[in-house]
From TrEMBL:
It comes from Cryptosporangium minutisporangium. PANTHER family: ARABINOSE-BINDING PROTEIN-RELATED. InterPro entries: Bact_solute-bd_prot1 (IPR050490), SBP (IPR006059). This is Extracellular solute-binding protein. It comes from the Bacteria.
Amino acid sequence: MIGVQDLPKEMIADFEKKNPGIKITLLQHDATRLNAMLASGNPPDISVAGAVGSANVNARGLATDLTPYLEKSRVLKKDDLLPVNDSFRWDGSRSGRGAYYGVVKDWSQDATLWYNTALFDRAKVPYLSDTQPTSYDDLLAVAKRLTVKSGGTTKVFGLGLEWAWNLIAPMTMMVLQQGEQLYNDDLTEVDFTTAAARRAFGWYVEFARAGVGPTSLNPLPDVSDQSTFSAKRMAITQDGYWFGGNFVEDTALRDSIRMAPAPVMGDKRISPCYSGQGLWIPAKSKHKDEAWKFMEYYLAGEPAETRAKSGWGLPSLKPLLPKLPQTLPYQKQAYTVAQNELRYAGALPDSPYITLDAWNAVIDKSLQRAIKNEQTVDAACAALTREANKLLKQGKEQVS
């Protein structure tokens, strides 16, 4: 069960040719269907998921320990794994250590920025640095200068945050950058009432009120920055290295785009991966050895090399990093920025007691209250703390 676009028919045919006796049946990835299959005890043999967020599945005992396979494989080797794969690890109580329950196929440091230099030139705004991060406060100020409105309509958004995709990861990053923690030690409770958390939450409220970018109250129809950015109606978008893969064939735009480091809120520079899509084998898979054969092929074989060369994300294996594209000027610039950014990669905490979807829903509800002045930022953060901790308590009871 994977995205159909990620496993074309030609790739299936190639794998089956190289592995006689193994046949692939492709199911379009669907979270609802996957949960139903897992609950019925008849899951797919392989599924796709984010490394960050896998703690919930691992805590419920739904995934296969892949460590024995990694230790024996001559193709997909444990020593070749980049640290991003640690988010797929689980030691029985928390992620980041212990056995491996998945392997990342590609990833990015998702808080980095892509921007259109032509829109910067038009607004007479200096370009962002290739090496030094912009503060979140300065980023918002720049976004205000880049935003173009006319007759009540926004012609150009100054900044996109991919609001619909993830709220908990960037807010957690902002708190970490201030040298604080959002969770308690055992990841059973959070506190949004600390000064660091209120600052992060308040920045999102200020961003929304400024009207410089899409939010859930002013969403993009396709819930993605890409088409708006490509139409030259968004000056900056907060997206990972993978975003550059959109512009290889876009001759009208590729000469005007650049990548910049992740912004910072505080003194600690951290540039994490928000997800890190990868493959895992359900514990009740009936064909685990065959599934591993496919993982070796897909994650360390020709498909992995092809993905690396395409620029659609960073590879998760050390030997594939040199394969990243540097043919076009923007690819060279993005490669240099990405290589420097790797020095500041850091893992986000991943509680097994709450899902990403639940997090995004509860945070967005609280943000909307504050944006519409139904609550102060302090009151919204207090309410968010209560509601999130209720969900975490329920999640812990279900896992236990």
